[in-house]
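agent> fetching stored inputs for the pyridoxal-5'-phosphate docking request
agent> found them:
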Amino acid sequence: MTMGNNSIPALLGGPKINPDKPFRFNSAIGAEEAAAVQEVIASKELSGFIASPGEPFWGGPKVRMLQDMFCQHFGVKHAVAVNSATSGLHCAMMATGIGPGDEVITSPYSMSATSTTVLMTGAVPIFADIEADTFGLDPISVEANITPQTKAICAVNIFGHPARLTELRAIADKHGLLLIEDNSQAPDAIHQGRKTGTIGHMGIFSFNRHKTMQSGEGGIVITDHPSLFEKMALFRNHGEAVVDAMGIEDIVNTAGLNLRMTEMEAAVAIEQFKKLSRLNSERIALAKRLDFALAGIDGLISPKVVEGDQHVYYMYVMKFDEATVGMPRELFAEAMLAEGLFIRAGYLRPNYLEPLYQKKICFGSSGFPFTANPRGDALRYYKGLCPTCERLQEREIIITAIMQPPQTEEDMDLWADGAQKVIAARDQLLQRWKAA
Ligand SMILES: Cc1ncc(COP(=O)(O)O)c(C=O)c1O
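agent> prediction call returned; pasting tokens
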């Protein structure tokens, strides 16, 4: 069969289907953010925090305004703005009161901070498997992993879709555990009529540069529980220096850090938060367009959205069925990239396969905090621990982020056309792949 010039894959020397429009991340920083930062600069008060008792312990006006806006929007009593979601997770973990010997059940399919912040308390993460369609914690696996040492569950609303939070909360309540939601990737997602971040006891949001709303760096934790709020606020701002003067008797986990958000970051985050609903709507519309464009392509399965849930598409995560597509996932991804189309084969390796867990080296070199766990050598992080997660990562998942502005509907169609072009040329591509 002879191929027209345009149908020769770029990987085999043909013309790129997308020669001149590289993928661009969210660019929704504009005049509003610039003016808000300028206002802070003009005030000359770039941070409102001081680590001593009194009003400045709680931060400056922009930080407080951001916290108030989150409380109002999410219908919660408290919010703690911090300099990253990693810091927010760290605050949340410390607020649970956990320490050496304790366990937190969490997902292995997340950015590494979800589990390292458990280690930072002296407790250890226990990795439960995830669900094949929404990639959130599998409640059955969670329950099977509960031990007398378990103190909390940390669910991750990964890629913008809620985990099965109602069931996970019921499990947490049944066993007297706290449920923490790492909601870094899912601001304003909905699970069965409720906003993610509010179903657990604490919900963490990220404002890093890749997130739907961003302030360069930044994050926030929301909670309805005054005692958790107090612990987080202490940990954010050198709690050790203020507890006695503030009349706080329970000093567990109050040796704090400096995790404070600046007034500039808060100013940007406020402006971005005002745009969040629009930013999400734009992503959802583009994702739906991509769903439509991919509908006729066998073997590329669009993201599942559970009935009653709202996905907010931090990433657009497809399942790749190698047998149906007729070529390896890695070859497909390589060919798409050569066409100038943004794609990634897999996300991150399951966290427990990182050297940290494989070698059990964290604080110093003697194995703490793993050595503090009463399971001893039975505490293992081995290949095969979470088979669904491993299968998804190694074979089934492909990811793109093109469903975010400034990309357009035409870019969605072009991405699908590119996928069709690559699949149509699979025999030629496979020949090269086998020869390589
Ligand atoms: C699920 C998840 N948790 C935590 C984090 C950490 O966020 P930050 O970069 O704000 O510390 C990220 C960031 O990518 C994330 O995606």
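agent> quick read of the result: The pocket of pyridoxal-5'-phosphate is lined by residues 84-86, 110-111, 113-114, 156, 182, 184-185, 206, 208, 219 (CB under 6 Å).
agent> awaiting further instructions
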